[in-house]
Amino acid sequence: FLQGGAALALGGGLGLTAMIATDKASHAAAKFTSMVKSHFSSDEKQTPYKDVTTYNNFYEFGTGKEDPARLAKEFQTRPWTIAVSGEVEKTVTLDIDDILKKYPMEERIYRLRCVEAWSMVVPWVGFPLASLIKDMNPTSKAKFVKFTTLHDPERMPGQKSTFFGSGVDWPYVEGLRMDEAMHPLTILAVGLYGEHLPNQNGAPIRLVVPWKYGFKSIKSIAAIEFTEKQPKTTWEIAAASEYGFYANVNPDVDHPRWSQARERRLGELRKRPTLMFNGYQEQVAGMYKGMDLR
């Protein structure tokens, strides 16, 4: 996740019911009535729904933290398709509602660490990215997975050339090495707090990679491409010296403009130490053996 100043910074298991939240963040959303509690989940205190849904980086809807909740209210996520291409057995277009029907949903309570040194604990709803990848039958040449956000300036005002922060080269692009994409911690999230994703949090489908800085978890995915070569990502292009391809959470490597040793958990007054790989070191460190993590 990047701050405004850095802008240049199922399966029949899915059931839906209408609900109105009773907490301070008044909202109405479709609710998942069947999902598995994952053993990968953290038992840490969850960040309140209001904070999770009103403190966001989603430059497609503005560079301020409150902009996405305000400017994405009318964003329509139906119809929605994801184009799958590249080094795969067959190029296909996936419909979001077919995805929701096909893959069993899990609750994954993950820590989220922003590169700006703040963090949350979010109860995501989603499914392993590996499940989708296996169904796509990538070829032996597929070494990386490239993700692209929808590009539609009329629906995403932050993409308009006149909008502050539009120094970003749209559409937003992210990527993972194939072993990272296939890792059981990596998920495609379609909800949070048991409900479908709010627009400002990346509806209708987003990536969540909990051991990496938040900007790697691309939102509102419209295309997935399997590539032989490492894709150039949005923040690499914008500021390669500040935002690398791997972007693993590392308290020992500072951002050029601030320390990464500590973080501010939303809702807490005091900063806490940042954990290597955001606390997922035991599960993921082996993928980076021998690499210079600085």
Explain this structure.
By secondary structure, the chain is of the alpha+beta class. It contains seven helices and 15 strands.
Stretches where pLDDT is under 50 for at least 5 consecutive residues are 1-27
Order of helices and strands: EEEHHEEHEEHEEHEEEEHEEH
**Overall pLDDT score:** 90
The proportion of residues forming helix, as a percent range, comes to: 10-25%
Coarse morphology? globular
* Biggest pleated sheet: 8 strands, mixed
Estimated structural class:
alpha+beta
Give the total of beta strands: 15
Alpha-carbon distance between the termini? 19 Å
Helix count equals 7
Percent of residues in β-strands: 25-35%
Radius of gyration: 18 Å
Any descriptors?
globular, 7 helices, eight-stranded mixed beta sheet, alpha+beta, 294 residues, five-stranded mixed beta sheet
What are the SSEs and their pairings?
Elements (H helix, E strand, L loop, with lengths): L15 E5 L7 E5 L3 E2 L11 H6 L12 H5 L9 E6 L5 E4 H7 L3 E8 L4 E11 H8 L7 E6 L23 E5 H5 L4 E6 L2 E2 L9 E3 L12 E7 L6 H6 L22 E4 L6 E2 L7 H4 L10
Parallel strand pairs: 3-6, 4-13, 7-14
Antiparallel strand pairs: 1-2, 4-5, 6-7, 7-10, 8-9, 8-13, 10-11, 10-12, 14-15
